[in-house]
Amino acid sequence: MSAADLRPDALPGYERQPELALVAALQLVTRYSSTRNPRLAEAVVGQLRAIAGDPRIPAAVQQCASRILGDWQMLALGGMARRHPH
Questions:
Q1: What pLDDT shows up at residue 36?
Q2: Is residue 51 within 8 Å of 65, Cβ to Cβ?
Q3: HSE of 42 in the Cβ direction (CA atoms, 13 Å)?
Q4: Which is nearest to 59 in space by CA: 67, 20, 74?
């Protein structure tokens, strides 16, 4: 582990290990399932975008991320709508 890995503000290192985006997404999805926290859904959206847009990720995984991105966007927006009713 390098000194950069210990900094809390360090980027996750996707440049060297793009699979970390998938690892993060799986962890966030698991946590979301028990909390239903819309901020976690927003974080999942970011991870799915990273996965879908990274050509180093296998095509099947990219396509899957693209397909479920809309569902997670709705979960994130649904949480926002509940917090800010009009």
A1: 92
A2: yes
A3: 7
A4: 67
Q: Which two tokens stand for residue 79?
A: 């949480």
pTM: 0.77
- The two tokens of residue 84 are 């800010």
Could you tell me which of 82, 66, 85, 56 has the C-alpha nearest to residue 25?
Answer: 66
Calpha distance 86→83 (Å, rounded): 10
Which amino acid, one-letter code, is at 56? R
The series of mean pLDDT values per 10 residues for the chain, 86 residues long, is 44 83 95 94 95 95 97 86 50
Residue 1 one-letter amino acid: M
